[in-house]
Amino acid sequence: MATKKKRTPNVENDSWVVVAADSLVDTQERDSDPAFVKLRNPSTDAAALYMLGSDDVQLYEVKAFEEDCHSWFVGQTVQRDGRLIFVTPMDPVYLILPYLIKSGQEGKFQPVDQVVTDEEFPACSRLLSCTRSRASLHHIAEEKEVGSRKFHRYSQERTMNWLKKKVERMVIALKKKNISVGEGVKSSTYIRLKSESDNHEEDFLRYAHGLISEYISGDLSKALLKHLELPELTSPKETEPPSKKRKLSEKPVEAGEDYTKFNSADFERKPPKKMTAAQKTLAKVDKTGMKPMSSFFSPKVKAEKK
After folding, report:
1. Which residues have a Cβ under 8 Å from the Cβ of 70 and sit 6 or more positions away?
2. Quick one: which of 129, 142, 48, 44 has its CA closest to 92?
3. What's the pTM?
4. Nearest to 130 by CA among 48, 58, 81
5. How far apart are alpha carbons 144 and 159 in whole angstroms?
6. Three-state DSSP class for 27?
7. pLDDT per residue over 241-255, tens digit each?
8. Stretch 139-157: mean pLDDT, rounded?
9. Where in the chain is the domain with CATH 2.20.25.530?
């Protein structure tokens, strides 16, 4: 369903059009409303926009599908921001993982409340309130219980096994939905070029690995590639996920080519090609009285009846 949320209270009709599940906007039985929050992106380590559901029970990823010069008609008003915002559920463990990796450098067990802290992004502590966040920590860390308290230490082995299962489940989903991957697909249009038998298991694994890599660091992505026993590619291939994020991102879409260079005064045009000896001889021929070649292909004029 589509909903909208005010961006700035002082500007009328300055809104977002959001596509989200009914469970996200249904807050009748909740104590708090869903809220947009800035958190550290686990892949880029930069600030990114997310949403925490009512009572922080669920984390949602926020992505914007953007087209140039678009707007929305909502009721009797025009929403000038033409982006379509998608809010989809996301596993909070992806965002907790970088904090555990950093604390794991100390090599000791620590309370997770002391690990998931960030002065630049204080809302990160709310990730631990998400359903099953704490219960899922054993997938990426060793656990030790002392009295009534639990302590955790990052585990590379457990993390690799957890990510491998994520990739395998992604492969199952891709096959179930008949998503074409591999060299038989044109990534820009998803057009099938080869038969389904050409879709090898490695193609699915690489595609799924690329999707999962959007939520982990570059180092983890390379380690996961080795854990999947897949050789690293020296150049991009169509088995990797297509550039669907060109428009599905938090940032404005940029042109892939600099077309302004053709309007520049500094743009150097190629010099004309040199004429061959035959062309030079033909150019010296006296063409007086000769008809051009195009005249032989012009339509005939019908004679008028008297």
Report:
1. 82, 83
2. 129
3. 0.68
4. 58
5. 17
6. coil
7. 554 444 455 443 333
8. 95
9. 1-90
More confident residue, 100 or 178: 100
User: Tokens standing for 277?
Assistant: 């000896």
Both tokens assigned to 305: 């009846």
Q: CA 181, 182, 184, 185 torsion: positive or negative?
A: positive
- What's the rounded Cα separation, in Å, for the pair 91 and 140? 13
Neighbours of 32 (CB within 10 A): 12
Residues 72, 75: Cα–Cα separation, whole Å? 10
Q: Is the pLDDT of residue 1 over 50?
A: no
Q: Please report the sign of the dihedral spanned by the C-alpha atoms of residue 250, residue 86, residue 15, residue 118.
A: negative
DSSP 171-203: HHHHHHTT---STTEETTTTEE-S-GGG--HHH
Overall CATH class of domain 1-90: mainly beta
Read off the pLDDT of residues 117-133 as tens digits, 9 standing for 90 and up: 999 999 999 999 998 89
How long a stretch of residues is the chain? 306
